[in-house]
Amino acid sequence: MKLFARRGAVLADVGDGFVAGEAVALQAAFAGALTAAERSSVEPVRVDLTLETEHGGRALVVCRNHVVGFVPPSWDQAVRAQVAAAGRARLATTGQVYRAEEGWRLWVGPPHAGDFPAPEPGADTLRAPQRRILGIALPDD
Predict the structure, then answer these.
(1) Over pLDDT 70: what percentage of the chain?
(2) Which member of 63, 71, 116, 126 lies 3.0 to 4.6 Å from 25 by CB, making a disulfide possible if both were Cys?
């Protein structure tokens, strides 16, 4: 047994792909996960992703150690089964971060050409965080 061995990776089966949920509420996570050059890009940015599960909660999409989205309800059971089958290995896939009218969004799966589809109904349940300046909450307009 190696003390500092890296976990292996198992390639996730995400079919044609899907749009991750909760992107509106996780804009700060996107800012932390992307480099300055990637944030300024108008083209979709290719990223490596890891799919994980919370203890008894939802399936997460992780990019560069930042939770950047949640697996939509239609894919939740399939991803959970793959995470369980992977054991201690990481469940890895690729994706693309792209700009939408409400901010950054995440496509999970093989590269997508053309316009990205809208997230499935019920994928976004968290509200956007309240705007703040120096930690002081600003009133909503």
Answers:
(1) 96
(2) 126
